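debug: dumping io for the single-chain case to check the tokenizer round-trip. Nothing else runs in this session.
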Amino acid sequence: NNMLCFIRGNHDDPRYFNVDRLYFIDENHTLLNLSHIKFISDYSIIKTIDGNILCIGGATSIDRFSRTLNINYWDKESILPMEDEEKEFISNSNLDINIVCTHSSPEIAEPTTKYTGSWVLYDPLLKTDLLIERKTLQDVYDFLIQKHKITHWIYGHFHERFDTIINETRFHCCD
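debug: decoded output
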């Protein structure tokens, strides 16, 4: 009776992630009318009895220069900006967002800089793309905290573990 919900990572083929936006998990933690494994599209909300989770996938691969396009790297693997459509969806859902799950993190969360090693020598746009990625999620955070009390922001991508409280939001980086 376990439910596995996956958000898009930086090495994931975006075609596997659907276009639904709102999922309901009942008191038995069963995803209604769907299988027990779900690939969650960006800016979707998972509604549970314990709170509402906004999911945003994607990130920039620092080693994309060495990867093969459409095999283990995708043009649109990075975080998609929050457009007016997503803002409207979140605002009109009448749900309080308590938790945010992303692959990367906003600028204010650890690590405040991303290790790029020598990849920047081969990929001159890498540093800029990484800054844009973090700024995109910072914009999401800034938008959300205007009307929502975000208690947890859970992310990965950095292959390290961080656990920090910033402005009453606990940022968890899962290694």
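debug: round-trip ok. The helical segments are 84-92, 119-122, 126-144.
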